[in-house]
Amino acid sequence: xxxxMVRNTGWPDPGHSNLHEGKTSVIVFPLAECLExxxxxxxxxxxxxxxxxxxxxxxxxSDFQEIVGNNTRLKAVLDNVRxxxxxxxxxxxxxxxxxxxxxxxxxIHDLSPRKNYPFxxxxxxxxxxxxLESELFxxxxxxxxxxIAQKIGRFELANRGTLFLDEVGDIPxxxxxxxxxxxxxxxxxxxxxxxxxxVDVRVVAATNADxxxxxxxxxxxxxxxxxxxxxxxxxxxxxxxxxDIEHLVGHFARxxxxxxxxxxxxxxxATMQALVRYTWPGNVRELQNLMERAVLLSSGTSLRVPLTDxxxxxxxxAPPDGNVLEQAERELIxxxxxxxxxxxxxxRGAAARLRLNRTGLxxxxxxxxxxxxx
Length: 374
Ligand SMILES: Nc1ncnc2c1ncn2[C@@H]1O[C@H](COP(=O)(O)OP(=O)(O)OP(=O)(O)O)[C@@H](O)[C@H]1O
Ligand SMILES: [Mg+2]
What we know:
Blueprint: E1 7-8, E2 27-28, H1 31-39, E3 49-51, H2 72-84, E4 91-94, H3 101-110, E5 119-123, H4 129-137, H5 154-157, E6 162-166, H6 176-185, E7 187-189, E8 196-198, E9 202-207, H7 211-216, H8 222-228, E10 231-234, H9 245-259, E11 266-268, H10 269-277, H11 283-297, H12 324-339, H13 350-353, H14 358-367
Parallel strand pairs: 1-2, 4-9, 4-10, 5-6, 6-9
Antiparallel strand pairs: 3-11, 7-8
This protein binds adenosine-5'-triphosphate (ATP) and magnesium ion.
């Protein structure tokens, strides 16, 4: 079992009293302390605020040092991690952006017999497709123009450990047979070499793309998909586990307050309600970033969250005489813009998500008077 640290999120949680019943393997609520906090509020205007305890984390038993959450679906994910970690099977982690896929991949490695060997990550979307082959498999000096020295690829670097193939859906079709071979045979050749390299690597892959659909559309090889999909783990979106939002707010508020040398002890109830209601298209990463901004903006002991960053689509104001279809179109555009972090063009931009061209989307953004919230 791993070194054990369980996060004490320190939130009083009258709405979820069932969560306080004793310890769980993931998270613990110090109910007595919380009630005490509530009873000692000093002034009237503090009564509508929730108290955040900035007690240090307490050491308790847990397999998961970094993963905060108590939601049933998240716990089912962690149960699956425990089951698959000791085996050598490939794992495919599915989930929207920012849901914690990389955290899960690391947890699998840390709970596996390979934990004392490297965990090597490759983001297949971040490396230009022409360079990905050499990044994964390495090359010999002179293998191609610019190959001025021999390079060891990530598969070799991960030998005896785990290779995390992030955004595996972005592996170009011409590279997919070579990946399949290394998964099946644990062997490959460096670019420019005929010598076969043997490795002992466990592959954990992740994607937020619909790989099954990509297979149907012949954009991803079926045999590679089945080889990767031996043990799929689907990480739920944050809006599907809203009961974890308070825990995560507490966790990140405390983390950033500590880092910035601030003392933040409470959050207005209305703020917390808005945070719980929001849809979080960027999931935990979006919440984490918002909490960092919030702690930066807070000058007193109450957490000041810039709620304009997370106003709902309706709050942004629909055009006064827009019809129902136009409003729906406007909301789809807003969602795509949020999910792409307000990037319009490019393969990951909102236009691509909506299957529109860039100018077409720019026209609609102007037409609907959409602007990025401050
Ligand atoms: N349950 C959680 N508890 C604490 N932190 C979390 C949790 N889930 C995610 N995070 C944090 O949120 C951020 C995003 O997580 P991660 O990088 O694992 O997501 P991802 O699914 O791989 O995202 P992407 O698809 O964009 O690569 C990280 O900083 C991670 O530490
Ligand atoms: Mg990731």
